[in-house]
Amino acid sequence: MIRVTLGSAAVLVVCLSAMAVTQKHALKGESELMARVERSIKEKEPEWKPLRLLSNGNRIVKRWKFGNEEVLVSIHEYRTGDEAANEMSRAVKAVSVPGVPLEKMGDEAYVWAAYTESGRSAIRFRKSNVFVSVGAPSLGLAKKFARHIAGEIEGEEKTQVPN
Fold it and tell me: Can you give the pLDDT at residue 56?
């Protein structure tokens, strides 16, 4: 039998409240960029439906679906641009096929066109402190989604107020 006293119940309530507040702030921080990305894709690609796969603080993985096609998007916001650059370096090395540099997308970008047996393509890029990975059934779709995301990251930078 578990005995709950008024004091232990109060401690439990305080702990649960603190956890809820912490989670709310983590989600708020995560959701600003992702909310803009989701809004942009919904406006520009209304037939594609978002399905959340993973979300933890500064990283979100989302799948977008239209018919039998799926686009997988991973967005990771780091504290610094150096951390994002390190992740980019690791991500590029992790693929067995060399990526081809992609111009005019973020600070650094690589593309893997039809690198799987099923013909899937991928784009990985970083912009400032954000690392993005997009996997799609075709290079055209990967580029389209990557451009939407890059535009929202650039939009975020334009609205930030310098310290």
Answer: 78
